[in-house]
Amino acid sequence: MEREAEYMAIQTELQKKISLCDGFEMDKLKTVAGVDLAYWNEGAEEYAVCCIVVIDINTREVIEKKHFSGRIEVPYIAGFLAFRELPLVLKTVEMLETSPDIFIFDGNGYLHPRHMGIAAHASFYLNKPTIGIAKTYFRVDKKTDYIDPENEAGSYTDIVIDGEVYGRALRTHRDVKPVFVSVGNNISLDSACEIAMRLTDKESHIPVPTRLADLETHIEREAEKQKRNNKEK
């Protein structure tokens, strides 16, 4: 409980600094980074690998990809995911040779009880605009559900809780499940959705950067597990 109180105090303080306005010019964006993590257990210990893939926003070509793995030091506590994942995220960011204009996280940002999902929290360490795009819906108040958007690419419905817009259910393709877009920081929800649509191709219903990062986590997780197994032999 002491740890939760400490984490909540940090989130509450950072929440006051979130900007829901664009801190950039859309026509000047060049690079976007997708961030994702994958976990595994070794005995009683938990490990994860963070993968970041940076792409050219216009061509969607991969510019670089980096990964970093390590032991998870913070136990899972609902609502405080960033405290588990940020150490690995920041270590991976340090390895990048480019400086992405925007980071997209496979997770939530403003769509969080204190508006401090991983995408929002990370922004204060990255000093870059961030977006959270989740594949599954996070029910913030355990009662508010989302309304399904129309079955057309680009259709969306706002996720409104107590009169405030927390995010959007966005359908990136016809006949696919929506993704859940929320602001991280220094970006508007309209721009976040515009970027999500711009970076989603026919291969998937999620944007290219996080899709590629997700694929990399599976590859690198298996590689790390194999590497550790070989050391034990």
Write the layout of secondary structure elements.
Elements: H1 2-15, E1 31-42, E2 45-56, E3 62-71, H2 81-95, E4 102-105, H3 118-126, E5 130-134, E6 156-161, E7 164-170, E8 179-185, H4 189-198, H5 208-232
Parallel strand pairs: 1-4, 4-5
Antiparallel strand pairs: 1-2, 2-3, 5-8, 6-7, 7-8
Helix pairs in contact: 2-3
* Assembly type: single chain
User: Helices and strands, in N-to-C order?
Assistant: HEEEHEHEEEEHH
**Helix content range:** 25-40%
CATH topology: archaeoglobus fulgidus dsm 4304 fold
What is the terminal separation in angstroms? Answer: 40 Å
Apparent shape = globular
Low-confidence stretches are none
Structural class: alpha+beta
Looking at CATH, the homologous superfamily is archaeoglobus fulgidus dsm 4304 superfamily
The description of the largest β-sheet is: 8 strands, mixed
What strand order characterises the main sheet?
Answer: 3-2-1-4-5-8-7-6
- Roughly how many Å is the radius of gyration? 17 Å
> Please, how many helices?
5
If you average the pLDDT, what whole number results? 95
Level-1 CATH class name: Alpha Beta
Q: How many domains would you count in the coordinates? A: 1
The fraction of residues in strands falls at: 25-35%
CATH architecture: 2-Layer Sandwich
Brief summary:
This protein is an alpha+beta fold and 233 residues long.
Task: Tell me what you see in this structure.
By secondary structure, the chain is α+β, with helices and mostly antiparallel strands. It has a single domain, classed as archaeoglobus fulgidus dsm 4304 superfamily (archaeoglobus fulgidus dsm 4304 fold). Helix content is 31%, strand content 27%. The chain contains five helices and eight strands; from the N terminus they run H-E-E-E-H-E-H-E-E-E-E-H-H. An eight-stranded mixed sheet has the order 3-2-1-4-5-8-7-6, sandwiched between helices. The model has no long low-confidence stretch (mean pLDDT 95).
